[in-house]
Queue: 3 jobs
Job 1
Amino acid sequence: MKARSRVWDIAVLLLLAVWAGPFFWQVRTSFTPDVELLATHRVLPASPTTIHYRAVAERSVMPRSLGNSLAVASLTTLVALALGLPAAYAIARLPVPGKVFLMLVIVGSTAFPQIATVSPLYLLMRALGLRDTWTALVLANTSFALPLLIWLLAGFIREVPVELEEAAFLDGAGRLGVLARVIVPLVAPGVASAALLTFLAAWNEFLFAYTFTATEASRTVPVALALFPGVFEVPWGDIAAASILASLPPLVIVVGFQRWLVQGLTAGATKD
Amino acid sequence: MTARQRADRRAGVAFVAPAVLVLAALSLYPGLWVLWLSLQQRIPIFGIARFVGLEHYAFLAQDPRMWNAARVTLVFTIASVTLELMLGLAAALALQRQLLGRRVAVSLLLLAWALPSVVTARVFEWLYHPTAGLVNLLLGGRTLNWLGDPSLALAGLIAADVWRTMPFVALLCYARLLTIPVEVYEAARVDGAGRVATLTSITLPLLRPVLLIALLFRTLDALRAFDLMFVLTGGGPAGTTETLTVYAYRSLFQTLQLGFGSAIGVVIFALVMLVAAAYLVVLRRASATA
């Protein structure tokens, strides 16, 4: 029995590694010199090289785009949390007029297709003079991350026993004080989940970024990767290196922050 | 109403106000504005902006390119979602019995899901390379032009989409499976239930609600999908992978017809809302009979 389950474990791991195979193949491609890429099919390159990474770092817009993406995704997460935490607390605990309608609108707006709101938002950003700025992307990303974030956080906050807040009220704290000193520390893992999902969505977002940016001043990583230039032929090795760099934050989140990521993804869906 | 209740009410309004204002300005307002835009002829580079009523919709109703895009979207959605649900369920059932290296297993599983879809497009573009791609190599050295052949491109696109979204379905199912108490299975074994009976009478019924949620999320996402086809095939070859979203985007920002493109956006919007509403009706009926 024991030996059989060990075989099963290894077989499942192997199958999952095969599923992740396309990504590993891209890693392999990023370390393979151009002459080998189109000519040979060795699993590992005969003479591994970092030339593609150097080309991307020195002669492409990727370094600038990585900076833009890091800033846009971080700022989106901060703004969404600053707006979403109080809103989630109010929805979970306070008597807000029209609360049912509000929740309906929030849940409903998660279904809004970006392709339908991109044209009005484009005109709005242009009218506000925000084209090709981080601000435009942070605002647009916040608008589509906020509903899910509020819904997630409200769920986590509801699980905190109300009695824990009472002690703080007796000490004379207001609602904001309770939120900051009692609720946030207690739902810290939930906040981490919501923050990770927001960061990931903002890091991966393509449609708004492709539409609202015009130069490398604000182009994010997915945009730079979609527009990656090739003069005479497609630079497969350079593209592979650039796509590995674009994948690093998601990779860190999946491997390093898996617990919180999974908690956020499965919240609600696994309750009866 | 006590002073405390009044204060709570004030705090409640103050706490939701900023988020509601941002959502109203950046989500609801554009959602209504797009309806108005779709009733206009609007071509900014020529300074054209005039009201044309339902003209765009009348044109779309008999536009062959529109109907082709609708067909592609439908095939893409049905094929992708079906494959994702089946493979996701299989992966979750395999993981359920996994004891060793669960963290590694979940990392390998979620990797494809977490990557930007533009990266997925770039990864598959290279895998599908006619002469040097891994796919043709594994098929025994064929030279199929996966992304350039009109009879293969949609299948190639669907495979890439299934690759990146199957893990989401698998994770939802897996998380639900972990909450089933071991005693339930032990009881079934004591009652003499075989593996197949256990699966069909215990595991699958318990997974039903999660599968329904995954079905809804995945259908809505497939209908709205844009990045992958836009970067991988750009809608080509010969429009065989041009979904409604790609047609809308090209009309909006490549031929710069903001009014016409918005009308396609509104059609997608209506489609998504229709599916969500139909799902809610089915769910309500299911819970009423349960």
Job 2
Amino acid sequence: MNDLLVANSVSKSFGDFKALNNVSISVPKGSIFGLLGPNGAGKTTLIRIINQITMPDEGQVLLDGSPLKPSHISDIGYLPEERGLYKSMKVGEQALYLAQLKGLSKQEAKERLKYWFDKLDIGDWWNKKIQELSKGQAQKIQFIVTVLHRPKLLIFDEPFSGFDPINASLIKDEILQLRDEGATVIFSTHRMESVEELCDHIALIHKSNKVLDGKLTDIKRQYKTNTFEVGMQPQRENAQAILKAISEKFEVKPATFKNLNDDLKLNIKLTANETSNDLLSFLTSKAEVHHFVEVVPSANDIFIQTVKNN
Amino acid sequence: MNHLPLIIKREYLTKVKNKSFIVMTFLSPMIMIALIAVVAYLSQLNNNKARTISILDETGLVSDVFKNTENTTYSILSNISLDEAKKQVKAKEEYGLLYIGKSSDTAQITNAIKFYSEDSPSLTIISSLENKLEKKLSDLKLQQDGVDIEKIAASKTRIDIAQESFTGEKTSKVDNILKLAFGGAAGYLLFMFIIIYGNMIMRSVIEEKTSRIIEVIISSVKPIQLMMGKIIGTSLAGITQFVIWMILGGIMVFVLSAIFGIDMAQMQTPQQEMMQQAMQSPELQNEMQNVMVAFFKLPILNLVIAFMFFFIGGYLLYSSLYAAIGAAVDNETDTQQFMLPILMPLILAVYVGVFTVIEDPHGTISTIFSFIPFTSPVVMLMRIPFGVPIWQQVVSLLLLIGTFMFAVWFAAKIYRVGILMYGKKPSYKELYKWLKY
């Protein structure tokens, strides 16, 4: 059993609107799983189904091999995108209340809260009211409350919104640490750079349908175009001749990247029966090569391309 | 997992610890009492002012009925013309001048009576003058016709029809008034309770929506648990507030009467003069005894038990609807369109209670409305002191419980969908669609 969470052909309609159409995903244990998609694609509906907030019309969701049931609530930690806390309640009381709702005993919750408050250095907030905190500070409390009961599955919907870069990286490190301690993370976001940084698996939902899923590296391999980014420093007089020679043999486009030298910068696409070594030896025979990198499609490129094609 | 006790506890503590709740609880009875005290004091001040009323009686027949009291002095003018009298009264800054014009016939005197004053005179003074004059003039007329007034006074009879049911249960008018008072108080209390604390529940649902904590909470508990917890927690807070009000009210009435008791006895207003006379009459003392007797004849056990059940049932029915409204909207201003259907049956219940139960507690209309679940709590509570068969109470209560369960189901549906809907004001059509999600 390698998948912590499996959704089998889940569909959900609201009146005439089909929010999810036959969506299946598998979230491997110990992975960080990126749930991506444009606004209104159906991500939140899927997340709410996993949290048993709404019931699917068809299909089934399995957590750790068994269909979702009320006792699973304490196995899941959910940080919704639309988040908030009781404004006029004190930080400590509120955290205790929410932890108890997740099934912790009061004593247990207190000890763990103390640990987290010390860790994030916010011990003196205990008796403050939420409305006295800044947005970022309240987010920290919300994060703690989400992970406090050590759930097997953590669901973060846009976890970094509202954080400054320092706190965002602090939270990112905490997420990675939780993953290392055995938690599985579902991560929904529009910020592709954090997907790139954190996720090892992704699924892309578009217009209620799943259009793409798998290991991020596999997907990138699928989407790669055998294009290489090349920077060369030819002699000034034969630059044109070299460019012409390359163009005859390969498909060439000008490239832009930062480099110390005033190079000839090109994107070169391999033909079907050639390897990167063939290209490299061809290039070194013409001029000095400073820069030779395979163009790997970014999550951002994949996202935009997939959404446009569908 | 059952989180209901936890939710109830939080809802209760948040309400009770809320500053405005505390202020309301302790300040409002004081403000009420202070207001009453101020009004009482002011009217006492007004009535206590000594005043002089001049009487110019050109017939010479009636002036002997005006006897000075502590606050009112009557000065009888004679051998003076009306104009001079007016000038004199004005110059002396007296309260006013009562003029009884000359008339040959006693029947015509009534048309020749006028009161002159600087400002418009107080209603109580005018009616006190009218009473005195009416009595005197009718006596005069009777005398003219050769009737012996003494005999008439002696012939006055007062009747209290003794009422007795066929089963031998004795009742009286006093009983009925007492029953009305009890029923009315119970019904009105429920009405107030629903409006005050139903609104509180609604606001607390809206608050959870606007602070966006709702999604965090319902990923841990079922919406229906949250809703029930809210309703019960808020009700307990409400009961706490009511109990404190009663205790404070009791203490204050006690304290105030201890401080002002003596003052009040000394207060002399025209009404109180009459009141005091009446108080000394043996009839009233008799009535006081009747009230005590009537009180112990009420179906007290039935009343208490029925009050608890109908109060709880009615309150829960309405408060679940309030919770549903709170869930359906984003802010309080949007609640208006949904409030009317809730308030209508409530107000109807109070009207039915006031107009038909008094007239005929077991008539068709009262009986029907005491079965309809949305009006039954108020109407039935008003009817019960008059003795309602147990089967009627049970059937009505079962109907109420059934409707309550349906309302909770309905409210929970709306609640479950509504709490996650933002940004648009739903129409009734949309609410109907939500039921099917």
Job 3
Amino acid sequence: MYPADFRYTKDHEWIQVSGSTGTVGITDYAQHALGDVVFVQLPQTGAKLKAGAVLGTVESVKAVSEVFSPVSGEVTEVNSDLTDAPEKINQDPHRSAWLVKLKIENPKDVAALMDAKAYQEYVAEKEKEQTA
Amino acid sequence: MKDKSARAETEAPGIKKAGRHVSQNEGLIFEKSVTGKRGIEFPPLDVPALDPATALGAEFARGGVEGFPEVSEIEVIRHFTRLSTWNYAIDLGMYPLGSCTMKYNPRVNEFVARLEGLATEHPLQPDKVSQGCLRILHDLQKCLLEITGMDAASLEPVAGAQGELTGLLLIRAYLESKGNARRKILIPDSAHGTNPASVIIAGYEVENIKSNARGQIDIENFRQFVTEDVAALMITNPSTIGVYEENIAEIAEILHSRGALLYMDGANMNALAGITRPGDFGVDVMHLNLHKTFSTPHGGGGPGAGPVMVKKILEPFLPVPVVTEKNGEFALDFNRPKSIGRVRAYCGNFGVLLRALAYTLAYGPGIRQATEDAVLNANYIRKHLEDVYDLPYNLPSMHEVVFSDARQKRHGVNTMDIAKRLIDYGFHPYTTAFPLIVSGALMIEPTESESKEECDLFIEAMRSIAAEAETNPELVKTAPHATRVGRLDEVAAARKPILRWKPRQHLDSTPHKVTATAVPTA
Amino acid sequence: MRYLPKSQSERQEMLDAVGAKSIEALFETIPAKYRLREALKLPGPLSEMEIIDYFKARAEETSRGYTSFLGAGVYQHVRSVVTDALVQRGEFLTSYTPYQAEISQGTLQAIFEFQTLMAQLTGQEVANASMYDGSTALTESVLMAERLTQRHRVLVARTVHPEYRQVLATYAKHLGIEVEEFGFTASGQIDLASIRADALAESAAVVVQSPNFFGVLEALGPVAEAAHAQGALLINCITEPLSLGVVRPPEAADIVALEAQSFGVPSSYGGPYVGVIATRDKFVRQMPGRLAGETTDAAGRRGFCLTLATREQHIRREKATSNICTNEALYALVVTIHLCLLGKEGLRELAAQNLAKARFAQEAMKAIPGVTLPFSGKIFNEFVVEFPRPMKHINERLLAEKIIGPLALDRYYPEQNNRGLLCVTEVTPRAEIERLAAAIRKIVAA
């Protein structure tokens, strides 16, 4: 379910690192919780973000969710396909519906994030809380 | 096919209140337009005519308005009459929307609001020829002060949210006059969404405080929150779960002892009028929603009025103008150097204010009976539904009762499904998914306007739906079945918004000259 | 009590069912010392007939029998009994905000039609489902421009309605928005040359009004160009939308804030009125206020629902774009019905009548010795008149003749103390304009 080569945050963002570039998106758990995504707002290329800063928002019909940057870095690319097809976030959250690419400032930021196994457990815990 | 079976089930035996209403296929008014028709004629011009093109010149003259409808009077009548039949309304039956106080809107209020000499008055005309209007405002002010136990009022805010903002600005102005406006407004997690939004516009920060397990403010915990940074607590009483805040007077004392103020959102005043007065239990500033407690019509979403009532200490800061009286002469006072300014042009929603006065005059001191009946209805409904719906907070209910869908969820049926199914039984749904402190809330406010018979029918419908949720959950989940349209595709509406009709021939060409801007879309 | 549908015995029956000993028992959570022991000191109860008598008596204490020449953002125009009959249908009057779309299609479709009419009228791409009034619509437009540009300053013409500017000042103060005003020229139009480019470069928007508070039409093209060149937006405010029947729509503006009272809404001593914001499609997600959108149900039937709700306060709470909850749906419906009755031809004819009346009144004023028209700009249905005596003097004497004279401008512009704003519409009879002129001639000559 959750790709092993990604790292995850408690706010349900993922980041895939390749060299000094990180690709960021929201997890399958997050898209499920949101429901049908109708609008995505992304930063502009060149924006400098601190880890935990608001990177953009993802909206469903009745909720707005802020997406936080998993690491500090500079936005090098945004996924403009999502502007016309926000539903991709529901269909393919871990691949084609990535949100932005970042030039990572400090690789240590990444190491501090959860790996797939830890995230899987974290999500399972969340789900248990909700049914309780 | 599906529709047929659903209908049969809708008209289940034993359910007295069920049925379909007449539906018509009615397009948009623009689709009925035919060049050359009109719905109104005017007396002939009694001065020399002027050709607009010549008078205004090429710089300013316009041809016709592209796409404007051209229809006759009877077509206008039929169009809007047909549209009206697609609405549910208080005049058709119980409208138990929690927190909205959908009570009977007396017809006499509509009549007096339209009187010549009242409806026809201009807000900037001299006070000398406005005495009747000013006296209405002054009389209403006196009544509202008596009902709330406060000292002074502004009738200018035109909605609850604007009342909130005005109240917060008054708090800020008062504290500033004391040397420090402070930084934060405390808001319980059960609050209306407008509260935090208003706080931001007043330049304050929001600090949320958690309700305790009983849905009340935890006094000990609260004490910790009230620091030197806190300007005020903004509280709804009774709270949005319909429960009186038992420690409100003590809460007021804690705030006052630390130089902070108590703001009460008067959205639920229908539970208190004639029984108790916010001014007596320590409230410093509050607003009323005249479109709730004071019966002015909601009209499909407005207008309303949100007058603000304050204690003496806040009076110097009230918005301008203030209605004054001296020896039987009424006037608008603009000369108030400490005023927070204006929150709206002119002097408020006079047409709404006078309806509220008509309502108050109809009851007089008997307004207490309305409150009693409202609370009785809510408790009666609670008593008859608490064995089939989950009651997350079991403190005594005031004017509304909040259940949760916990039991029905086991069958995959949620509060929204139950609400939609209620439509098939001839009722407007209750408020769903609010307050946020109740997961899957069913928030029911019957108001005093419902007879025992109507309450019984509602109870019967709700019990019947609870049974359906167990035996035939699909039926509930796909409701409503008896309406002109089914559940609408809100996702499609939000993804590719269609927000206006466009003439077909112009679909592809833009009729507007759009100047490019170098503005980033935030 | 006639509004309460319960007999005493039914009340008792219900109390028994609840298991409460008395009605008092239901209020026991309220500490006894805060429960009222005495009846409130309120007038009433009054019967329907007495209520009507009270209000009729109040209606006698107002301006009936007077002729008014006031405009200044609130206009007396024809209204049809058809509009009033339709909006008094209980299905419109006594329904709530259309959150339950399946049983609110009437309100929703009417709102959709309203949005369309407002967009057509203003030449903009999209309009909202209404705001409280023009003054709050203007304020919200400025907040919207702030969000769009991320700039915290705004340049406002002094020719914008003074009370609208006061409302803006109240809201702007604590939001950290700096409001800077700029003046007007001898034509009564904005003084574009007085706006510095560096001020524009820091501003979210330039705010103008057309027809402006002096009744004068503004040329929007040049100010739009100047604003856009510096990355600022142009907000145009309209308090007399009937002008749009003959006057070019504000296509050059990025945001239009409009007061629609002129279309069938009674002046009613200040409200309720109907504000509207119209704008370009690309700005819609930063526009405040409700919106109805077209969609379909599962069976493919066309229907309407409230949409883009995520902009609103009940979802965003402290991150909302505005704290506005109520729109003015019932009066938006009045405007919709009124405009459908007027139609394309009626709107134009009515606007042309206003233009002709105003020209007639201008000529009548100019003919009075000592009376001048200080501004040279083109007007629609109101204009500024300068008298050889203070307005107070003129208006006191006019009032004695049962005439509510021109609005004294010194109320808002202390330096213009001999000037009044005079408005005539299609409902001002020629004979009354002539009576006004004769009265002024006498007062000025005395």
